Amino acid sequence: MVISEIGNLVLFDHKNATVWQSFDHPTDTIVPGQTLVEVFYHGAPKRVYAYVESRPPQVYLEYTPAGESEGEDYIENYSTNVAFTNGNFTLRRLFDEEVYSSSISLTTVYSPQYMRLDLDGHLRLYDWSGFSWNVVFDVLQGIMDTCDYPTACGEYGLCNKGQCTCPVDINSSSSYFKLVEERNPNLGCVPITPISCQEKDKHRLLTLPSISYFDKNYTVVNTTSVDDCKKACLNNCSCMAVMFRDSKCIWMTKVFSLQSMQPGSDSTAYLKVQIDENKKKSILGATLGSVSAVVLLAIIVSLYLKWRKKYGDKDAFEFDQLLGMPTRYSLERLSECTEGFINKLGEGGFGSVFEGKLGEERVAVKRLEGARQGKKEFLAEIETIGSIEHINLVKLIGFCAEKTERLLVYEYMSRGSLDRWIYYRHNNGPLDWCTRSRIILDIAKGLCYLHEQCKRKIAHLDIKPQNILLDDYFNAKVADFGLCKLINRDQSKVVTVMRGTPGYLAPEWLTSRITEKVDVYSFGVVVMEIVSGRKNIDHSRPEEEVQLINVLREKAQNDQLVYLIDKHSDDMVSHQEEVIQMMKLAIWCLQNDSIRRPSMSIVVKVLEGSMSVETIDANSIMLVQHNASTYSVPPQASVLSGPR
Q1: Which three-class secondary structure string do you get for 244-304?
Q2: Which long-range contacts (CB under 8 A, 24 or more apart) does 161-168 make?
Q3: For 50, how many CA atoms within 13 A lie in the half-sphere containing its CB?
Q4: pTM score, two decimals?
Q5: What is the pLDDT of residue 499?
Q6: Residue 613 belongs to a domain with what CATH number?
Q7: What is the pLDDT of residues 605-632, one digit of tens each?
Q8: How confident is the prediction for the chain on average, in pLDDT?
Q9: Buried-exposed string 469-490: b where 16+ CB fall within 10 A, e elsewhere
Q10: Any idea of the CA torsion for 260, 261, 265, 267, to the nearest 10 degrees?
Q11: Which end of the chain has fewer beta carbons closer than 10 Å to its terminal beta carbon, N or C?
């Protein structure tokens, strides 16, 4: 028994003939030189299939080698094989001693590789970097979209351009499905009322128009009408859903991810659900109770407003008496603690920051500019922002709201903002790789909390090194979150008036609706500044190197990312493989299409090592700086580099 150089375990007999070899018994993984062979006979299908495990299995991939067409009939036998050699994934058909092949070119590298069919259905190529196995290519990415995979959104999940939701009844407000986990919609949905075979009289079919499903091969019966198809499903407990297409009743015994199509598409799915009579009664009771509560609340509010109009003073209502509200300070007290606002730590787009001292505690006091809200609206936002606590977010200690003055009191961060430590303006030594990677993870965790773990989603809209603060131990915290709401309550302005800092703005500021994915883009820019030790826009450099993201795209296309590693630090150079992986994560975040950028929770998983970086074509990076001439606002300096 011998293991060959390419990893094939071979058993020989006494005549040195092969009796058995491991390459003939693949599981989920193949290595270079290994071939999958299956003999087909004339009139048989001539495709490579992939199935998702269920009873019966459901097909999610049909791949036909070039030169074959459905319906051809061959008299002779022929064979088809799948080979993985020399950086190519090839499907070959052998017929009459001729070879017809269809090849998908993979990334050619000179290091150990293997290809694996992963649990999510993706066929991925892995490469050994010298430290770990990394995904370098998704083999089927040119053949299949995200929503084509059976578990893209879990069981019963509805996939639309990579986003996952649960099916809803278009004809009523009733909900029959709920997310398995609210924070992770890609885990799928479950029926609110489990389907029981003992209660078939309560089974119904939920109609979902414009829906496609990956399995197009499993047909239960040929029927003449959609009504017959639906009736057959309702009469059989093993049927969980049906689709009627081309006079065929496609039967599903287990429902995986559904795909949303363009409205009006002639493809409808019918999902089996169970009606809960008790739930109907409870909903009616809850509705009546809610109406009563609303009426009672309206009466109380009306009486309070009358009382306040008669007795109340607008400036006397103390919102800081509410539980969890940050401390409310007078303007006089904050002026005293900052010694008349003389020790300025920095200034930015939202106002100036001053050093202060409350008792024995050092604080940073931000004096907002442009806050034209009424006091009640301002305090309502303060109550929301002040209730947010996370180790990677700068804590709001207190506030002041007197007449037109609006001030915020933050915890003091001794090492100031991140820009002073990566641009080398203060004669500080270069940070080592461990510190930089930890800072990047801290920023990601802070943004993840704002985007996905707060009661109200908060988009920062101005992520940059000046808004990342460091404590004594170089732990990073995100500052200035939620300030866009404090400055402007009109939410429509958030999507029409450009915010943030030139150089960190995502492309969609110019064309489309703004979501938290603008922060993901800005995060990608900041990551590149941290690992390269330079500004995103640096006019002191040669013209072709002024814009860091421009250089990144060029070096990524030429496989020269090592050029961008901060050369001030020998430690960074010695960890170049890990630094390059971090750059690839930045490229993923910098995609022009916001939908294709990862969420911050995905970014955290990648940084913690539980997920791999998705390989992105460098051409997908869009340079916002190139479009600066089309902005409706001029670039403004925004420096906030001192300790705060």
Answers
A1: EECCEEEEECCCCCEEECCCCCCCCEEEEEECCHHHHHHHHHHHHHHHHHHHHHHHHHHHH
A2: 161/595, 162/595, 162/596, 163/595, 164/188, 164/257, 167/206, 167/208, 167/258, 167/271
A3: 22
A4: 0.49
A5: 58
A6: 1.10.510.10
A7: 999 988 887 666 566 554 433 333 333 3
A8: 78
A9: bbeeebbbbbbbbbbbbbbbbe
A10: -40
A11: N
**Residues annotated as catalytic (active site), given as ranges:** 462
Beta strands in 13-74 (DSSP E): 18-21, 29-30, 35-40, 48-52, 58-63
529: tokens are 């500044």
Helix axes 548-557, 576-589, angle to 10 degrees: 110
As given in the structure block, the two tokens for residue 37 are: 């062979």
Distance between CA atoms of 484 and 467, rounded to whole angstroms? 14
Please give the structure tokens belonging to residue 585: 């994560």
Domain span at residue 542 reads 419-630
Split at pLDDT 50, 70, 90, the class of 589 is: very high
- Which helix H or strand E contains 78, and what residues bound it? strand 78-85
Each residue's pLDDT tens digit, 479-507: 888 766 554 434 333 444 555 666 677 77
| Domain match, 130 and 222 both | no
d(CA 607, CA 440): 8
3-state DSSP call for residue 406?
strand
- Read off the pLDDT of residues 199-218 as tens digits, 9 standing for 90 and up: 888 999 999 988 988 886 66
For residue 181, is pLDDT > 80? yes
Q: How far is CA 191 from the centre of its chain?
A: 25
Tokens 């400036």 label which residue?
315
Domain final residue pick, 141, 166, 190 = 141
CA 259 to chain centre: 19
Give the tens place of pLDDT for each residue, 346-383.
Answer: 876 678 899 999 988 899 998 887 655 567 667 777 87
Q: What stretches of 326-415 show up as alpha helix (H) in DSSP?
A: 331-337, 375-386
- What percentage of the chain exceeds 70 in pLDDT? 73
Number of independent structural domains in the chain: 4
Q: Taking phi first (over 0 means left), then psi (-120 to 50 degrees means alpha), and beta for anything else, what does residue 359 get?
A: left
404 and 467 co-located in one domain: no
End-to-end Cα distance, the chain = 68
Phi, psi of 571 (to 5 degrees): -65, -35
Task: Answer yes or no: is 605 a known binding residue.
Answer: no
Q: What is the pLDDT of residue 631?
A: 32
Burial annotation 343-374 (CB, 10 A radius, 16+ → b, else e): eebbbbbbbbbbbbebeeebbbbbbbeebebe
- Residue 454: partners with Cβ closer than 8 Å, 6 or more residues away: 388
- Give the C-alpha separation, 496 to 493, whole Å: 5
Contacts of 207 (CB under 8 A, 6+ apart): 169, 170, 171, 268, 270
DSSP letter assigned to residue 414:
T
Q: Which of 119, 141, 163 is the last residue of a domain?
A: 141
Question: Which of 40-44, 56-60, 80-84, 471-475 comes out lowest in average pLDDT?
Answer: 40-44
Q: Specify whether the CB–CB gap between 355 and 373 falls below 8 A.
A: no
- Which residues neighbour 644 within 8 Å (Cβ) at sequence distance 6 or greater? 345, 346, 353, 355, 364, 410, 412, 413, 416, 417, 469, 479
Whether 157 and 213 map to the same domain: the answer is yes
Beta bridge partners of 126: 114, 135
